[in-house]
Amino acid sequence: MNLFDFDLTIPITDPTWVFFLVLIIILFAPMILGRLHIPHIIGMILAGVLIGEHGFHILDRDSSFELFGKVGLYYIMFLAGLEMDMEDFKKNRTKGIVFGLFTFVIPMALGVWSSMSFLGYGFTTAVLLASMYASHTLIAYPIISRYGLSRLRCVNITIGGTAVTVTLALIILAVIGGMYKGTIDSMFWVLLVVKVAFLGFLIIFFFPRIGRWFFRKYDDSVMQFVFVLAMVFLGGGLMEFVGMEGILGAFLAGLVLNRLIPHVSPLMNRLEFVGNALFIPYFLIGVGMIIDIRSLFMGGEALKVALVMTIVATFSKWLAAWLTQKIYHMQPNERSMMFGLSNAQAAATLAAVLIGHEIIMENGQRLLNDDVLNGTVVMILFTCIISSLVTERAARRFAINESVQEEEGEKKLQEQILIPVANPETIEDLINLALVIKDAKQKNGLIALNVINDNNSSENKELQGKRNLEKAAMIAAAADVPVTMVSRYDLNIASGIIHTIKEYEATDVVIGLHRKANIVDSFFGNLAENLLKGTHREVMIAKFLMPVNTLRRINIAVPPKAEYETGFQKWVEHFCRMGSMLGCRVHFFANEHTLMRLQQLVKKRHSSTPTEFSILEEWDDLLLLTGQVNYDHLLVVISARRGSISYDPSFERLPGQLGKYFANNSLIILYPDQFGEPQEIVSFSDPRGYNESQHYDKVGKWFYKWLKKS
User: Fold this and answer.
1) Measured distance CA(528)–CA(539) in Å, rounded
2) CB 291 within 8 Å of CB 53
3) Residues 6+ apart with CB under 8 A from 393
4) Distance CA 18, CA 285 (A)
5) CB-CB contact of 540 with 510 (8 Å)
6) Crossing angle, helix 221-241 and helix 186-217, to 10 degrees?
7) What is the pLDDT of residues 626-671, one digit of tens each?
8) pLDDT tens for residues 438-490?
9) How many Å apart are CA 113 and CA 105, to the nearest integer?
10) Residue of 5, 173, 421, 629 with fewest CB within 10 Å of its CB?
11) Which pTM does this prediction carry?
12) Alpha-carbon torsion (521, 525, 526, 529), positive or negative
């Protein structure tokens, strides 16, 4: 009996060792090629060439590569739609359509001409071959994600153009396939248009509503991740069902779910992580396994076909990017980015060549012969390499330019958002709020605080506080944002928060809205009132009735003279970031003078955020806003501390109005930065910090009541 019963045969078929080898390639290819300054994507493709049946034949391209490859392909298109800046896409949709038409028409024209002139193919074969040049795959998109450049104008234009050219190329493929199946007639066109239009409406109209309902009802991270994947494959499967390529359905699913999955959120981080760690590399390795480099050196027409295909495909894509750049006066680096992203041939090209290879014409020959098949896979290899190199180079230039601009510009204050985590039920909402208002370029900036009252300290409270801090850190870590955890003892909660603000130089505080314990209790509670008296920093008091990512609009009520407060620009920036991140409209309500200042600021610094502006003359009666604020909207009320420039006596009626008119709405009451000496938080009458009203307030109220009775 052998101690080790180990029988290794090539190619390896045991699933355990197959998966192990793939993981080793995914792990070491970036390490090795990173030292050579070669994009990781090329490493995956070249590794696929080496281990595939046309290389050392270590692995077969079995069903696992087909399954994970298709998932990876869908993932690339899905992430492209998901990470797109929708407002920027709307602004540049005309440019995207123009680029899409250029990158379709130019390769089609040059492809038909070169195939008939240099390769001697017939018209139908030439048209199908040209459609392969016209389509492209965003195979270099992971490079964009890695550099954090997915919101660039040129990236959005390229993604929009991809949707146009791939759709047109797949229609040509469907028509040519139908010609040889004998199904081309008047009804073919009618049915194709009706099916695609109906399916597009189905995805665009129902997917967001289903997604919003699901995210509001279920907050489990695993369920949300599986739900999103199911929607992606439902979109792809439905698109294949009507005769189109599934990648279009995956792209559409990404577009419609864009608003429900913020760019900085735990769910987005999980989606990107799983795709970039497993599915997309699996797809790239599978593409490499198809490529047969030996066919180039075996004589025949394969080398000539490969050269013509590669040159025509690359030049036509560069020409389309160059024309778009010249027409819209774009920068040379933007042209490089568009060319790099649009040059790679993989998904639709493979689909077209495999379908064309299977079609037998009347003379008994294949529509696309073996030379075209081998030439196609070589073209895929070279276009993928060119695409990766050009995109990597352009992305580095953009990243360097951004760094230089940040150094030359004014140095921004380092944001530190403090989140007290006393209530376990509100932790997730408060952390998600902090994630969508923080500066995405600053990696740190969140502080979770647990304050233990000296009077009421116990082991149970200490343990609960520790759990709350761990929960907060876990939620933020899922979005790849580190959290500083602070636990401290103090005389009372408010003074603990205030001391932490000073020690950690916190710039903002996000707390949950106090729940009234009895009829005598105030709307904000002692904690918020004492906190506002003890710090001049921006304080957000929040109440969410639904997850932050499912909000459809942000309505902001701004009092007169708010533009004169120190923190005016800061809170405007926070909510414009929030609107951009959630893809929802920010609607400002203010008087004419304040509204004009808001419009100037938004236009200058936050023009990409979708905004509206409406006049609100009677600030002291928020009943006027009840018709504007729906159940899935967020109402933000900008208030002010007593004695500040924008303070108004009508603020005293705010709690009653909010509790009466907006009890069923998500709500934020914001007190902006108001620099100056804060009121003393510790008085002689109550050294533990429960601030009593000043004596003149009491006297004033007494006179007011006396005069009212008289």
Assistant:
1) 9
2) no
3) 336, 340
4) 12
5) yes
6) 170
7) 888 888 899 999 988 887 888 888 888 888 888 888 888 889 999 9
8) 887 777 788 898 888 766 666 777 888 888 888 888 888 888 788 888 888 87
9) 12
10) 5
11) 0.71
12) negative
